[in-house]
Amino acid sequence: MNPHAAGDIVAQNGLATVAAAVRDEPVHNGIADPHVALRYLDKQLLADLIVKASTL
After folding, report:
1. Would you report the helix, strand and coil content of the chain in percent, each value rounded to 5?
2. Which of 14, 16, 21, 41 has an alpha carbon 20 to 30 Å from 8's alpha carbon atom?
3. DSSP state of 15
């Protein structure tokens, strides 16, 4: 999974085009400093992925 937010110049959409196992997922981190890690970490889709990975 590749979560990416509009305005984040580091995490970008399109990683799935170069890595077949990756799924691009847009998230909304607001307009002020969208690359802040805590804004990504509070997203449900990332929490779900962490739970899934921890039960393997």
Report:
1. 35, 15, 50
2. 21
3. G
